[in-house]
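Hi again,

Forgot to attach this to my earlier email, sorry! This is the prediction with flavin-adenine dinucleotide bound. I've pasted everything inline since the attachment limit keeps bouncing my files.
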Amino acid sequence: MSRSYLIVGGGISGLSTAWFLRQRGHRVTLLEAREEAGGNLRTEHRNGFLIERGPNSTLNNRPALGTLFDGLGITPVEANAASKKRYVLRDGQLHALPMSPGSFIRTPLFSASGKLRLLAEPFIGRAPNEESVAEFVERRLGREFLDWAINPFVSGVYAGDPAQLSARAATAKVYALERDHRSLILGMINRMLFHKHRGGAGPSGKMISFADGMQVLAARLQEVLGEDLQCGVRVDSVQTSAQGWQVRSGERTWEADDLVLSLPAAETAALLAPLDPAFASPLQSIEYPHVASVSLGFARQAIKHPLDGFGFLIPRRTGVETLGVLFPSSIFAGRAPADHCLLTCFIGGALNPELGSLDDDEVKRRVLRDITPLLGISGDPALCSVNRWPRAIPQYSLGHLQRLESLEKIQTRFPGLHLRANWRDGISVADCVQNGHDFAQGQD
Ligand SMILES: Cc1cc2nc3c(=O)[nH]c(=O)nc-3n(C[C@H](O)[C@H](O)[C@H](O)COP(=O)(O)OP(=O)(O)OC[C@H]3O[C@@H](n4cnc5c(N)ncnc54)[C@H](O)[C@@H]3O)c2cc1C
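Structure tokens for the complex follow:
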């Protein structure tokens, strides 16, 4: 039966939820505060460089992405094969993360005892209580893996603190290996054999973007949704009504059977607390650290490093402030003019709250101070774009899943109310699209 839905928030969560609901024959009205839809998906074209202010790419590992791209008639571009290589900083040097058993044995990234420690992993039992990512990884793989592999990965994805993030919520796929296979190593072997056996069917798991950047996805959704999407509408209150739900923005009101909030946690709390104050606490406990992405364009000859990879991650143990650096012009074509290259650096995060008090010039200075010796940079950048995200990525901290459960309990008192955004069920663009799809599939 066709129903009507009001969706608030036109980031990728709200846009894909609207599109998949429409595909199932429902009527949608999507309201977005900014003049342009897309939320975090923001691409800037400047002086021949293509700068991603937010996500640079997403992993094509969720089937709903393909359905959406086909339906929209857009074709993604895959990351260059050479960009599979990822570097990690240790002892002042960038080391390639090992991709094969042979390179693992040879890599100086882990000591001989750190490597031998892995042999014990299949024999380690499960923990009785919820663990942080740091506790989980140290228990299973040892301290070295935590410091030099997992910690930088967590910085790269969440800009987070592994001691605060919940293993079950933030690294759900890794956690599932222990739950389903008793061991991460046995679980990975099992998965590799399973995928080989399936002959590579299903999503490729490659990093993807679009020739003109990630915002292409949002722009195309905006175009296809047409009048069902209204931009420049900041919703300031929501309430139940005879039909189901009513939302208000200034003097204007909209009504529908169902209401979907696809908003950051704090904005969701602000709209729902007047309905029931119990909504506020679990939503307000979801923290978002401040992150800046600093894109720097250089003449190619100004950098000695071959830039032959995806980028590099900087473990917190090194004491270096910058979290990591992507090499966008090595990953996708068309990110920099001829004979130039583009770097995107991240700084800030849960372990560096000082960022909010620094101005853009100081942020740029600190990033250049950190990366200049590592990449062998000479001379000034030809381009610099500092993009601040005062509330960047929701942290799936200890207790996150309990917070979601308590929200679901409160929601049962409000039929037709749905909460769909990146603070639950995955933060990647691919996760948000998949969640929009799965939600729509469940609506009859
Ligand atoms: C710097 C950065 C880098 C990232 N890199 C990657 C990456 O490389 N790969 C990847 O897969 N993911 C990455 N992510 C994560 C990913 O971009 C996000 O998780 C995802 O885009 C979130 O989408 P969303 O729709 O849930 O939320 P948002 O994009 O935050 O959208 C929420 C929308 O709600 C609107 N809104 C807010 N209040 C109101 C209101 N009252 N009324 C109406 N509208 C309102 C906002 O304007 C916004 O458009 C990155 C994120 C950041 C910040």
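The radius of gyration is 22 Å. The first strand starts at residue 4 and ends at 8.

That should be everything now.

G.
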